[in-house]
Each structure stands twice: as C-alpha cells, then as structure tokens.
Specification:
Length: 432
C-alpha cells in the first residue's frame, strides 16, 4: 500500500474523504479500486499485460496516458496509487503551476536522499502546460527524481514536448466499447453500497441501449446521465423504477446539453465538415466550420484535420493542397483566434474546390494489409546492401541494377517480395 507524505494529497484518499463529507457523484463512487473491476482496456491492463505487471511490481517508468474523456486515465492513476510503494503526488495543470512543482521536486529529492523512496508525480491534463512549463519536468525526469505519469485527451505528438515524449511510454486508451459500457451500467444498477442498487431501477432494452449510445464511449458521461435519469424516474407501487426509451429521452432532454468539444456532437460536426470537403461542397464545409468555431472548438484540431484530409482525400490530384493545409495550420499557431478564422475559411474553400484522389491512402491500406497478412517477408537479395564481405558472399546486392547506369531497371527490376510481385497498390485516377 502506498505511503503518503503529510502534505501530499493522494487521489484515492481524497475521493474517500470526499465521500465521508458529501455524497460523491456516481462516477466517482464507482471508480474501480482493483484491476479486476477496471473494464474496457483489457489489452492494456489485462492479467498478463506489461503495464499492469509494471504497476503491480512497482517498476513503473514515466508514462503518458492518452485517451478520450471517460476512458480510464484517472482511474489508472488511482490504481497506481494503490499498488505502488512510491510516494504518489497528484498535480493538476488546471490549478497548479511551476512554483508548486518546485516545492514537490524539492520534497521528492529529500525523500529520495533520506529513505530511497521514489516519487510518482501524476499530472492531470498535462496538455494544458505550455512548452516552457513542460520543460520544467524534463531534468527531474532525466535524473529519476520523479516518475512522471501524465494524462491527456490531446494528441501528445502535438501537445507534449518531444524530449519529454522520448523519455516516456505513451499508452493509448480507446473509447470504451458498448459492451464495456454495458458492464459498467449493470454494475451501477446492482451495486447497493456505491451504486444505484437501492433505487431499484430497471431499464427496458431500448432504454438501456439508448443510454449506452448516449455515453458514446465515455464511462463518466454514461454514469452521470444514468444517475440523472434514475433520479428523475418515478417509482411504481412496488418501488421499482421502470425506465423505457420515451422516459429516457424525456429525462435527457431536461438536461442542459450543448456542443461539447470532446463529446458526441464534436464527432458529428467534424464528420459533417470532412464529408462536405470530400464532396466538394464549399458551402456545407463553411457552415460546419462556423458551427465549430462558434462553439469554441480548438482551431488547432480543425487545422490538423485539414492537413490529414489534404493527403487522404486530395492526394496527388493536387499536391499543393498539403502545402495549403500545413500553411493554414502554421497560421493558426502564429495568428490565433479570432483572426485565424480567416485562414481556416480560406483553407476550407480551397480544399473543397480541389479534385479528389485517395489513391495514395488506399494503396497504403492495401500494403498494410499485405504486411500484416504475410508477416516479415524477406527483402530480395538484390535490394540489400552488402556492407561486409560476408554479405557479398551471401549474395547481398547481386544483380542489382543502378537506375542511373541502366534506365531499364526502373521498369524491369522488381522491388517487392516474390509472393507480392504482381501487386499494384498505387492506382491514381486519370487526370480530368
């Protein structure tokens, strides 16, 4: 069990203390305390998974948990706190800054010197720290003063500095499946002590599926909505609260719902935007762009999707599309809102108006499928470099045609393993 410093607030202890003073939200009360209760990320923390073994053996190195809201990042932090002998110190990027970090580092150094105890620093929403603030972690991670455990909903490639990424394991959590959400829902409805078991709520099949769909891969959203719905449902003469699809819809409609930058509507609107671009409908694309901007969507997210779209859907039909999209992304970083809306609008109309060709992307998918299907096919000998005499004796590089000396090599020389020699992955559309 973790030993806690007097001045350090442990996440798990904090949640228990909170429950002693006021009833915590359902999502907090049901937070798993053991791995066996943690559902939805079995490929990461299953019985024999390396991450779980490292946590249980108290051999965790710096790690960054990246995943959507409600996927289990903070819960993993709780489990680390329960299963490690290191000092576990939570640190919020929302409420804390570099001065607080210096105090934590100083205490960690003293702890390490006096009794050899390690310090695990859990940084929630690490993406909220700017690059200079993230630099403050780096020397202490390098020296081993702290083991950094970060959590973020944003792509670490864009939001976490490269030196910190290179010193950390990035663990990707996926949105929870409907099956996992269903298990969480059933547990909440039957758990009498921490869940809603005492309320005797029974969901009819259509209501159960509707609530799971409303959760949209987010356990916290599911449980928050579940608690609200059950509290709104009237009890029958037998005390049972039977909830059907109509009651579910009525209860959820009472809840103040708006565009959530990481919720269901976020995915719906960005999907409409991308499909408008793909169909060369500049008007539709501008409308959905306006919807996102008006709702406060991160312009960097929109710009990143434009960069992806330029290669995925336009490709070599107009290679300049990628240049335009990356320029828009740079402009967004440099200019910022509100003026960057102009750059986004220009990029949007350009991408919508260009010819479309996804041959590069389709070809990559087909090649990836072959790579997975056929495994590690040997590189043909003539394509290998003979950097030693032994390699030359083994035939490395034999019969290779240097295209500058033999122009026929471009068409006659094969560059695929024999089993794939007739594959044609890249099939560009003919120019219009």
């Amino acid at each position: 069990m973790t030993r806690f410093h007097d001045q350090a607030l442990d996440l798990f202890t904090a949640s228990e203390s909170f429950q002693d003073t006021v009833e915590a939200p359902l999502a907090e009360r049901l937070r798993p305390r053991e791995f066996v209760d943690f559902v939805g990320q079995d490929e990461l923390v299953g019985q024999d998974c390396p991450l779980r073994r490292a946590i249980e053996a108290d051999q965790l190195s710096s790690v960054i948990f990246w995943g959507p809201p409600g996927s289990g990042k903070t819960t993993l932090a709780h489990l680390i706190a329960r299963h490690t002998k290191a000092q576990f110190v939570p640190f919020s990027a929302v409420t804390s800054g570099v001065p607080e970090l210096r105090m934590i580092i100083k205490t960690a150094e003293q702890r390490r010197t006096s009794n050899g105890q390690r310090t695990i620093l859990f940084v929630d929403e690490i993406h909220r720290f700017n690059k200079a603030q993230q630099d403050a972690f780096l020397p202490h991670v390098e020296r081993g003063t702290i083991i950094l455990v970060g959590a973020t909903t944003e792509n670490p490639s864009f939001e976490v500095i490269s030196p910190l990424l290179s010193r950390s394991l990035v663990v990707v959590l996926k949105p929870l499946t409907e099956e996992a959400l269903g298990r969480i829902l059933d547990r909440a409805l039957t758990d009498v002590e921490q869940g809603l078991g005492k309320w005797q709520a029974r969901f009819l099949p259509d209501a159960r599926q509707g609530l799971i769909s409303f959760g949209n891969g987010d356990a916290r959203a599911l449980l928050t909505s579940l608690e609200f719905v059950v509290m709104q449902a009237p009890a029958g003469a037998d005390g049972v609260r039977v909830i059907d699809g109509a009651m579910l819809e009525a209860a959820l409609s009472k809840k103040a719902l708006r565009y959530d930058k990481r919720g269901e509507e976020h995915y719906n609107v960005i999907s409409a935007y991308i499909k408008s671009l793909r169909d060369s409908d500049a008007n539709g694309a501008l409308y959905w762009l306006a919807r996102m901007l008006d709702a406060g969507e991160d312009p960097k997210f929109i710009a990143r999707r434009m960069v992806i779209f330029s290669s995925e859907d336009i490709g070599n039909a107009d290679p300049s599309a990628l240049l335009v999209a990356t320029s828009v992304a740079q402009a967004v970083q440099f200019v910022g809102l509100p003026e960057a809306q102009i750059n986004l609008a220009q990029g949007t109309t350009y991408l919508a108006s260009r010819p479309k060709d996804n041959a590069s992307y389709v070809g990559l998918l087909e090649a990836l499928k072959d790579a997975k299907t056929h495994g590690n096919l040997a590189v043909p000998l003539h394509l290998r470099n003979a950097v030693t005499s032994l390699m030359r004796d083994l035939g490395y590089g034999t019969d290779y045609r240097y295209v500058h000396d033999d122009p026929r090599a471009q068409t006659e020389q094969t560059h695929l393993p024999p089993v794939l020699k007739d594959r044609r992955y890249y099939r560009p559309k003919p120019p219009e």
